[in-house]
Amino acid sequence: MLPTIILAATFGLFAATSLQAGVQIRFIEGAPKDRFVLTNVGTCEVEASTLKIDLSQSAGRLIFDVAENGAGVEVYQPLEFVEGVDALRQLPLVVDGQNTIELEITSLAIGDKLAFTIDVDDTIGQREITVTGSEIEGATVSFADADETNTATFTSEALVNVTTKDC
């Protein structure tokens, strides 16, 4: 009986792991730079796809503050890739005050990360320069390839998992 339980537990772990195919995006509040970290947590290489982060539905109505004297408050920080930039087809353009960014991914291997820093400000809170997980809650991430588009929503833990297609 014990080997059956171990086999069932092992199978359950395998099944749960295989269901996590996709990418995970984590938002990390920082001063003066906030960080987004995209990790390929799936079982397949991510290829020829577009990942869009859309802050428009976030609880704090977040925006990117990338220019002095722009839409944000106090400190601004331009977009800077700190890991995995070679996974992109081209560098995205971010205009001050916009609430979306699109990353055109050519190839991101299993377990690899793509990370960038930028300043994110809220537009309805009392502390616009500090963004909490609850303020990014509701923001969406869409993952699109030639076949389909999948969208998921940031949680109050500043984390989102988006499913990608199987290998």
Characterise the protein shown here.
The model is unreliable at 4-20 (pLDDT under 50). The longest helix has 17 residues, at 2-18. The two termini are 35 Å apart. This protein has a five-stranded antiparallel beta sheet, with no helix packed on it. A four-stranded antiparallel beta sheet has the order 6-3-9-10, with no helix packed on it. Helices cover 13% and strands 37% of the residues. A hairpin with a 4-residue loop joins strand 9 (140-144) and strand 10. The radius of gyration is 18 Å and the shape is globular. It contains two helices and eleven strands. The chain is mainly beta and 167 residues long.
SS elements, strand count: 11
The number of helices is 2
Radius of gyration: 18 Å
Q: How many strands, which pairing sense, and closed or not: the largest β-sheet?
A: 5 strands, antiparallel
Helix content: 10-25%
Q: Output mean pLDDT.
A: 83
**Element string (H = helix, E = strand):** HEEEEEEEEHEEE
Seen as an oligomer or otherwise, the chain set is single chain
Strand order in the sheet with the most strands? 5-7-2-1-11
End-to-end distance: 35 Å
User: Strand portion, in percent?
Assistant: 35-45%
| Secondary-structure class | mainly beta
Shape: globular
Q: What ranges have pLDDT less than 50 throughout 5 or more consecutive residues?
A: 4-20
